[in-house]
Amino acid sequence: VMGALESRGVLRRMSDMLEMLMKRMDILARLENSTDFHKGDEARFPLDRFQPAAGLMERIQAIAQNVSDIAVKVDQILRNSLLNGKVMEGRRDQCEVPRDPKYPDCAGKVEWMRARWTSDPCYAFFGVDGTECSFLIYLSEVEWFCPPLPWRNRTAAVPSPPPPPRAQAAFRRDLARLLELIGTGKESLSFMKKRIRHLAQQWLQAARRLEQRLAGRQRDQKHILVHIGFLTEESGDVFSPRVLKGGPLGEMVQWADILAALFMLGHSLRVTVSLKELQSHLGVPPGRGNCPLTSPLPFDLIYTDYHGLQQMKQHMGLSFKKYRCRVRVIDTFGTEPAYNHEEYATLRGYRTNWGYWNLQPTQFMTMFPHTPDNSFMGFVSEELNQTERQLIKANKVSSMAVVYGKEASIWKGKEKFLAILNKYMEIHGTVYYETQRPPEVPAFVKNHGLLPQHEFQQLLRKAKLFIGFGFPYEGPAPLEAIANGCVFLQARFNPPHSSLNHEFFRGKPTSREATGTTVFQVSSQHPYAEDFIGKPHVWTVDYNNSEEFEAAIKTIMRTQVDPYLPYEYTCEGMLERIHAYIQHQDFCTTSSLPPSPKTKSPAMQSPPSPLALSPNSTHLVWSPSAGWAPQAWPPVASLQVWVSEPQHTCTETCRRHGLVCEPTFFRFLNKEEVFLQLSITCDSTEYEMNHLYPAVAENVRECYLQKEPLLFSCAGHHAKYRRLCPCRDFRQGQVALCRDCL
Fold first, then answer.
1. Rounded distance between C-alpha atoms, residue 511 and residue 513, angstroms
2. pLDDT tens digits along 648-704
3. Least confident stretch, 152-156, 559-563, 605-609, 654-658
4. Structurally, what CATH architecture does the domain formed by 387-564 represent?
C-alpha cells in the first residue's frame, strides 16, 4: 500500500498520460478530417496508411476512459483512507493549534495557510486539503514551523545506522563522458565542448602531475550540480546567438574550464542549462515554488551564477535557505560583503541589482582575484612546451600588432590611436562582419574577420603587440596573448571607470575597494594584468597623452619578452585551487571559537590570547605556545595581524607586507584584547555593523568591533579609521592558497 505522496504521484502520472493521449487523439482527428490532406498529398502519403484511424481512435478513447476511471478510483481510495485514518484517530475535526514556545510562528503560519493554501498547487501535492489537521501536518512534517502532532503514526526512533563509506574521487583519464554530460542544442555548449577538446591533453597531463603531488591522499567524491543559469531560456540567453558573431566568450571560457576541472578531479557531475532540468534534479514539487523540495538535496555542491541563484530561490521554497550553504556562485566581477548583507546594504545605500544574498562572501567565485573577500575561481590559458616557445621567439614580427576587440563598436572613435600605431606597426583586427567590412575599421587595418580559436592563437604567436581600447573589461584574451609572447598595451583610465561615468558598471555589487563608498571603479581595462603581471609584459599608459602612447610603442618594439603564463591560470594551477576549495571550504558547519570570558564562570580565568607580537616587529602572529589551535582553513599558522594606515584597505595593507588579506581570520582578531596587544589605547569599545570594523579612530581613541560576521571585509577604507587586518602568506604563483593550504 502506497503512502499519500506516492499515490498522488501515480495519480499525477496518470493525469499526464491522459492528457498526452487526448492530444494525440486530437491530432489524429484533425488529420482524418482534413480534405486537403486526402486530396493534395495522396501521391506522397497513401491513404491506406490511415484507414485504421477510426478504429484506433475508438481504442484510444477506451484506454483513456479506463485511465480516467482508475484515476478517479485511486483518488477516492486515497481520500477515504485519509478520512478513515483521521476518524479512527479521533482527530478529524479536533485539531487545535499547539501553543509551544519553541514554535512561536506556528499560529501565524496556520492563519496564513487558512487564507492562502490554494494559492500554490504544491500544498495540495503535499496533502493539504483545507482542514486544520492538514495544515498542522504540513507545517510540522514538510515545513518545520509547528511541533510534531502526537497522534500521528511515526516510526519509533531507532538509532540510524552509520552512513556507508563515501566513494573516493579518482583522477580521470578521459574527457569523453564530460562532453556527453554537457549536451547539445546551443552554440554556447558547442563552443565549450570545442574548448574542452582542444585543451584535453593539457588537462590530462595536469591531472597526472597533481595526482602525484597529492600522493594517494584520500578524497571523498562529491555529487555536484552545475547549473549555468545565464544560458537558460528563462534568463534570456543572449550569449548563445552571439557566439558566432563576435559576442563575449569570457563567461563560457570560464564555465568550460570549471566543468573540465571538476570532472578531472573525479567528482560526480550533473550539468543543466534549462529551468526544467534544474527543477527535476532538485526535486521541486509541482506548483509555484512556495514549498520545500520533495526529498533531501542529493548534491553536496551546486555551482551556478546569479541567474541560477535567482531561479533556485524562486523554486526551492524554504529549502533554499536550508541548502544555500552548498551553493558556489560564479561571479565575474565579485560581490563585496557590504553589498551582500541585505539589511546593511539597504541601510547604507549599497543596494544593487545583484547583491543582498546574505551568503558567506567566499561563496562567490570570481574570474580574477579582485578581492580576497571572494574566492578566486579563474580559468586557464593554453600552456606552451619548450619547442613551441622557441618557435614563437623565432617567428615574432616586431612590427605586427593585433587589436583586442571583435565587435566593431569597440573601434569607434579610436582613429587617433590607430593612426599613431600605424606609423610603426602593421595592424591586424578580428572584427566580425557578415557581408561588408565594418566602417569603424580603418582601411589600413588588415581585418581577418572572426577567427576560430586556433587561428586566432596563430595570429597572436606572430604578433609583437596586443592592444586594448578600453573594452571589454577583464576578459581572458590578454592572458592568452601574453602566454603567446605578446606585450599587452592598455589604457590607464583617468578618472577611473565607475558606475558614475560608465553604464556597464552600474549595479555591480562591488566598489572594487577603490573607495569606501558605493562606487565601483577600475583604473585600467585589465587590473589583474596591470597589478599581478606588469612590465615588461603589460604596459598601462595614458592614451590621451599622445607622446606617452607613442613612446610606449617604440619601447615595446625594442623590448624582448618571453611567453609568460601565471601558474594560477594553468590547468594544474586551476585543478590545485578547486581541489583545495572542495576539500576545505565548508559553509554549512558553524566554526567554533573558545568561549569568551563573559560566558564563563567568574571563578574561571579567561584563556590567554592565542596571538602574540612577532619578535622585533609590530604585528601579531599565532603564538606557538597557544593552548589551542582551531580546525581552520587556511591554517592559523599563516596568520599575521597588521594595522592599516588611514585611507588604506586591508587588501592594500597586506599587499604592502608581501601578504594577502584573509577574511576568514577576522574572527580571531575581533576582540578587545587584540587592540591592547597592538598597543592601541581604547577609551571606549563598541560593537557595530560596519564593513570597516574592527578598527580604531585614533584621534578620539574609540575602538570598534564587528557585530555582524557576514560584514568582515578586506575591502573599504575611511580617513577616520585604522583597520585591524588579517593577512596570510601565499603560494608562489597561486594567490588563492597559503603555503600550507594543500
1. 5
2. 999 999 999 999 999 999 999 999 999 999 999 999 999 999 999 999 998 999 999
3. 605-609
4. 3-Layer(aba) Sandwich (3.40)
Compute the distance between CA of residue 303 and CA of residue 294 in angstroms, rounded to an integer.
Answer: 21
- Tell me the C-alpha distance between 654 and 547, whole Å: 35
429-437 — which CB contacts under 8 Å span 24+ positions?
429/402, 429/403, 429/405, 430/402, 430/403, 430/406, 430/456, 430/459, 431/246, 431/405, 431/406, 431/407, 432/245, 432/246, 432/406, 432/407, 432/408, 433/408
| Total residues found in the chain within this entry | 742
The mean pLDDT value of the chain amounts to 85
pTM equals 0.83
Alpha helices (runs of H) in 117-154, residue ranges in sequence order: 121-125, 132-137
The Cβ-side half-sphere exposure at 386, using a 13 Å CA radius, reads 0
Residue 138: alpha-carbon gap to chain centroid:
33
* Separation between Cα atoms, residue 461 and residue 145, nearest integer Å: 63
Q: What is the pLDDT of residues 88-122, one digit of tens each?
A: 444 445 789 999 999 999 999 999 999 999 999 99
| pLDDT tops 50 at residue 646 | yes
Quote the CA–CA distance of 488 and 467 in Å, as a whole number.
6
Rounded Cα distance, 56 and 569, in Å: 63
| Backbone Cα Rg of the chain | 31
Output 311 or 25, whichever has higher pLDDT.
Answer: 311
Grid coordinates of 160: 540510524
Is residue 344 left, alpha or beta, with left meaning phi > 0 and alpha meaning psi from -120 to 50? alpha
Tell how far CA 247 is from the center of its chain: 21
| pLDDT exceeds 60 at position 630 | yes
pLDDT tens digits, residue range 66-84? 555 555 555 555 555 554 4
Cell numbers that stand for 456 in this block: 586566432
Looking at the predicted structure, is the pLDDT value of residue 305 above 90?
A: yes
pLDDT exceeds cutoff 70 at 32: no
Helical spans, DSSP H, in 149-232: 176-182, 187-198, 200-214
Grid cell 563515501 in the structure block, residue:
166
247-to-241, 324, 525 alpha-carbon distances in Å: 8, 32, 18
Residue spans of the domains in the chain: they are 95-150, 175-376, 387-564, 611-728
CA-to-CA distance for 96 and 111, rounded, in angstroms? 12
Query: Residue 486's closest CA among 565, 570, 541?
Result: 565
Bridge partners (DSSP) listed for residue 223: 268
Residue 484 CA to residue 460 CA, distance in Å, equals 6
367: which 3 cell numbers? 574570474
